Structure formats: C-alpha cells, structure tokens
Amino acid sequence: MQQEKQRFQYLWNAFNNNTATEAETRELLSLLNQEEETAIDAFMEEAAQPYLSQSATPALPTWQAIEQRLLQKEAAKAKSITKKRWLWRSAAAAAVAAAVITLLTITPRTVTLAADNADRYITLSDGSIVILQKGSALRFSKKFGQSQRSVQLTGQAYFDVARNAGKPFIVQTSKVNTTVLGTTFSVTALPNSGQVSINVTSGKVKVERGQQLLQVLAASQGLEASIEGNQFTAYTTTEEKATSWLNAELSFNNLTWQQIANRLSSRFGVTIQFATNAIATLTVSTTLSGNATLLQMLDILCAATGTTYHINGQQVVISKK
C-alpha cells in the first residue's frame, strides 16, 4: 500500500508540475477512477482540495461523465460513502481528464500539406507520388504506411501509388473513398462542389461511398459521383483529359530568379538557395512545360541565366558558372 501511495504522489506531483508524460497522466487518471478504498485516499483528498470549489471545477462533459459513473458504481456496491469522497475523487479525475484531452488536442497526430501558391509535388513515405493542384490540400497520419495508407484530399490531385498488396492506398474525399493497390489516377473534390470525380490512367481503383460499392474503374475510365445521394456517372476518359491540368505551361515574364525559385520550391517541395544576392536578382523570361521535371526546369533556367546548380537531398544551390 505504501508503495502505491508513493507512486500516486509521484504521478500527482508530475501532473501539477506539467512534467507528466501522456502515459503517466493516463495512469494517474486510472488510479483516480479505481473503485476500492486504498491507502492513497487521504493523500488524494488533500491533493484534490484546489479542485473542489465551484470555480475550479472543470466545465467539461468529462466531469459529468466521471461523476455519474462513480455514483453508479458506488450505488451498485451499496457502500455508504460520503458525498465529499466521491466529489473530490471525481473532481480530481476530471482535472486530470481535462489535461489528457488538452494533451491529445495540442499534440498533432496528422500532417497537412497544402499547395498554396503553385502545384506541389509530394513523395510519401511508401514511395507514392502525389501532385497537388494549386489551392488543394492533403492530410494524413504521422504513422502513414506503418499499418495503413490512407490520405484525405481537398481539391484536386494526381496519384502515382507504390504497389503494396498488403496495404491498400485509400483516398478519402468527404463520403467517397477511392481504394487502390498500385496505379495512377486523379481525384477532384473541390470544396462546395457537391461532386467527386475520379479518372484512372493505369491499373484499377475501387470507388465506394461508405459500405456501398459504386464502381471498379480500369485505365481510361472515370466516374463522377455526388457527395450526397446515390447519383453517379461512369464514363470513358483519356490520359490527356485526366492530367490536362498537370501539363499547363509555366510562364515567367521578367521575373527574378528568386521569384521563380519560390514557385519551384512550392511545386517540388525543395529548398532553393543562391550563392550570392546578385544571382537571386537576375531576371528571366521563359515558358516551361507543365510536366517537366525539376531537373529539366533547372537546366533551362540556368542556361538562360548563365548559372549552374548543385542538389544535396532536398536542397538546391544556384551559383555562377
């Protein structure tokens, strides 16, 4: 019993000093919610005093839920426990539960990548490639690829999915999900449009709304479905139609190397730096193919400005020839 009391004292002090880990906070909450009388009750009653005033009681649904559960347990056991005991126990439990909720809220468990100013190229941890259209966003778990491969899309994107038969790749768009093993396809789910469209360029994808299978699409097939309701239309498409937005030309009219670098950084997810400020202020006027790779664009831009580039991982350095 003494060992249990010492453990509780440690957990309580860590909680109040904001040094408790998530696991320790959960352990403390478990101790606060235990049913039996324990040797830590006296310490708990004293420690919980700051939470007994009406003003200090957390105004959270957790408070009412824990309070009600404790009352039901005590009534079922037919124990004569004073209101004071369950009040301080539930008050302390609610305080810790509130901290757990806050901890889970402020600890980001997902990654959101947005294409704010230009199309953005993304390589996911499983090797899949996503090209986000300008104004679109992709959201996925920090544990993506470990036990599942699921992403949430807002806007429009082109996917080149790395094959993994054991872990299907799922694109979630509101109520419509697109599931694949390995293929290339585009998905459009613009905000407030009420429609989702999928165009397949290779392989096969399965399109579902909840548990309802809408269609299995193969290469050169597309589908448009309403987010609400059961309406959907399947059609024949072409790769050119599915990827037309990817091939849009990039025109630069008398822009500085720095301005162009900013657009390329956003598009390809790299950092572009310049050896000197003089290089960054050089102006360029040119048109690039929308489906050109980063290296192809750098070759053209460096040739036009008399510069060269060096790539180290995700960093590009532009210097004078």
- State the low-pLDDT regions, or none: 48-67, 77-84, 103-107
* Radius of gyration, CA atoms, in whole angstroms: 29 Å
Dominant shape: flat
The overall pLDDT average reads: 76
Instruction: Provide the number of structural domains.
Output: 3
- Listing every helix as H and every strand as E from the N terminus to the C terminus, the arrangement reads HHHHHEEEEEEEEEEEEEHEHEHEHEE
CATH architecture of the largest domain: Sandwich
Helical stretch count?
Answer: 9
Helix content: 25-40%
Strand content: 25-35%
Termini distance? 76 Å
Largest sheet, strands/sense/barrel = 13 strands, mixed
CATH topology of the largest domain: Jelly Rolls
CATH domain class of the largest domain? Mainly Beta
Number of DSSP strands? 18
SSE-based structural type: alpha+beta
Report on the architecture of this protein.
The chain is of the alpha+beta class. The protein folds into 3 domains: 2-106, no CATH class; 110-242, Jelly Rolls (Sandwich), CATH 2.60.120.1440; 250-320, Phage tail protein beta-alpha-beta fold (3-Layer(bab) Sandwich). 33% of the residues lie in helices and 33% in strands. The protein has helices at 2-16, 22-32, 41-47, 61-77, 83-106, 239-242, 257-268, 277-280, 294-305, and strands at residues 110-114, 120-123, 129-132, 137-141, 149-160, 169-173, 176-180, 184-189, 195-202, 204-209, 212-218, 221-226, 232-236, 250-256, 271-274, 283-288, 307-312, 315-320. Strands 1, 2, 3, 4, 5, 6, 7, 8, 9, 10, 11, 12 and 13 form a 13-stranded mixed beta sheet that branches. Helix 2 runs antiparallel to helix 5. It starts with a helix and ends with a strand. The model is unreliable at 48-67, 77-84 and 103-107 (pLDDT under 50). Keywords: Membrane, Transmembrane, Transmembrane helix. This is FecR family protein. InterPro entries: FecR, FecR_C, Ferrdict_sens_TM. Residues 116-206 form the FecR protein domain.
